[in-house]
Design a protein that fits this description.
Largest sheet of chain B: 16 strands, antiparallel
Distance between the termini of chain A: 25 Å
Largest sheet of chain A: 3 strands, antiparallel
Strand content of chain B: 25-35%
Strand order of the largest sheet of chain A: 1-2-3
Radius of gyration of chain A: 14 Å
Helix content of chain A: 25-40%
Distance between the termini of chain B: 61 Å
Number of strands of chain A: 3
Order of helices and strands of chain A: HHEEEH
Helix content of chain B: 10-25%
Number of helices of chain A: 3
Number of strands of chain B: 43
Shape of chain B: elongated
Largest interface: A-B, 41 and 32 residues
Oligomer: heterodimer
Amino acid sequence: MFKIDRSRADLAAAYKANPLNPYPSSDLQKVLQRLRWGSVRDRDIIVCTVPEKEWRLGRFGARRGMAVTVGDTVYHRYEDALWACFRARWREVSGEDCPID
Amino acid sequence: MSKMPKRILGYTDKVSVAPGDDIAFKISSPLPGSYSARIVRLICGDDTEDGPGLKTETIKTPIDGSYPARWQPMRHGSYAVIEDVEAFARPSFTLEAMIWPTLPGNGEIQAILGNFDVDTQRGYALYLDAEGHLSFRVDDAAPLRLKTSLLSRHWYHVAVSCDLASGQIILRQDRQIDYPRQPRVEMAETKLTLGRQAGKGGKFLIAAWVDDNIASAHYNGKIDSPRVLGSALDAAALAALKPGVAPKAQAIAAWDFSQDVSGIKIVDVSGHGRHGYTVNLPTRAMKGWNWDASEMNWQARPAHYGAIHFHDDDLYDCGWATDFTLKIPADLKSGIYCAELRQQGPDGEIDDMIPFYVRPPRGKATAPVALLIPTASYLAYSNHQMATSWTFDELSTSKFTTLSAGDRYLEENFSFGLSTYDSHTDGSGVCYSSRLRPVINMRPRAELWQFNADTHITDWLEAKGIAYDVITDDDMEAEGAELLNRYRCVVTGTHPEYYTAKMMQSVRDFTNQGGRLIYLGANGFYWRIAYHPTLPGVMEHRRAEDGMRGWISEDGEYYMSFTGEYSGLWRRNGQPPQGLVGTGFTAQGFDISSWYDRTPDSFDPRAAFIFEGVGKDEKIGDFGLIGGGAAGWEIDRADPLLGTPPHTLIVAVASQFPASYHWVKEEFNHTHSAVNGENCPMVRCDMTFFETPNGGGVFSTSSISWAGSLAHNSYDNNVSRITENVIKRFIDPTPL
């Protein structure tokens, strides 16, 4: 299994530089596949709070019918919300903070 | 915290109407006061910053005005009802059933059988308590509960005998499979002190109990062969009970769920005629406790298919009262219309747009072109909640989950009913989808998928001044090829994915009889579905055998309950889409779209009309609203082995796709790593043209993204040009 660790700050930087496009680096693809594998119910996701203008990180409740928890930090560019989600998932999957802010 | 706004919502009783027809609108608002309503003709529903914008035309009709707002409930959860109250208010009885619980211990009470009424706290119920223990209660007396909780997805024989006069209760469960260290059989007895009128509750319900004259305590799982005996058995007799075996005591009701499978009736075979009916369409044609894989078709061995699977989130018909009814004016042109609702609330205005389709007067065409609205496919996706139903959604889309306001509303408001892409609360797949409920995602201003993406086509037709009628899958299901034959050219939506047998035959007859079809999408004609033969507005699908599936049908459950037809892929039913339209689903990816390059076939004189005004080296569709290109999202491929006609011209190909595009799984024998856009030659998009008998023809763009490129550069681009070239030639009666 491909291991995500802080030594690969280059991969995080590559994602941050271009979060909307497909990724020619196969190692970055592997990182993203690991960050995206499995159910999202207990993980950080993105919630669009104003269409095309405002996004925040959020989390589903334990089951349908419960409120989606939405964070206070507002992102005014979708790319910034993607980067925040990437960093949160990096932390969750690897157990370490993402090496770049 | 971001606060979720309230919504005014509604639905219609019909999906497609003709001049002179009535259509009823059923509205619910969470706010008091009044709301305004008017009718608009919808030209484009894409209100995104880069899109053509929301475009409507107000139509003056008698429904214009203000209406009192009222809240109407969503009563989800399936169950069965037997109306004969007196028959089950007995001094002594025994209840038994085979059950296969799917969510025991989910924190909720789940009723199995009984007449218990929550409001009066009277009656009796056999049920699972919140921790998943088999329990029995009479009135408000302390319930009797077995010690061992039930295992999920295991068959149990459960039974209780009850003598209300003596208060003697015996409760028993018998798991149908032995495991070491886990007791198979458990039994308990008690003696209750009960009043003289004990056990006289409300209606007898299966899979729920009576609550405010409706139902609550919904059970999740299968129930097979429920039976009520007219006396209280002793422990030995209780242990000897088995489905299909005549008990010592006479049955006062015994329901055989393998009968009348396609309907909502449950049949009492005891001879007492205590038949009942189901509410909210629990899933039928389900494997029963005795299914042994000796037969896969429920019609061939009904005795093995005696189960109904109930779900707490099933929803067929909201049953809302009508707020207003529109009689379609005689001169109203065919098109997509919406009832537009607006209401002022304390946090601003709330609104909704409820779509419906106006076809031309029956038996007539009012334009040479028909846009065939894929209402069956809209239904399949209605209110989907893929983000939580799937564990692979982010890997499939190559995106982190991003909830829109609509997604969030559906997640937080349980339950608006689900789509055929979803899993029920208990993880089982959703087989039925209904339009008799508010559908959040098939609306203007919603995601650019199905309904709203298809308004890129209407927007373009209007911009180009091309006259068109709107007809729907529902109309085609009712009238067959005769409906299509009124048009010189029929244009599909962007993703006409779900087809009944009659719809497939209608399109085939149309093209074989000289009709011209423009397949302006991809992944079409893919899944086999059925509409219910008598219940309005509901379809069925089984995710059988293979395909790009949101869930997988259980083995032995591939045949649809509505019609008995084998479901799954049309290519596994002898009709690959390549034989109908030249191409069929080959790959999908949802981050960027690509462009087409012309092929040598495009210079064949037969294809000259397609490329008039298009340069020989032009990239076709290297622009657009859907992923930035005209070839993308889902894409199709020609394949002679799957029925692409031998004279088909592959006039353009898109082949530059990233690794996020994945080859469809039904095509590879073994899993391996060369299945994506970077390394798999099957990940490509073929634009095709071929002639059909009697002067007809089929042109296929084979891409969902195509329509999103039509408006580029004020509708002056090569995607628009090619589409217009083909339509103009296809409405010319000169044989192709």
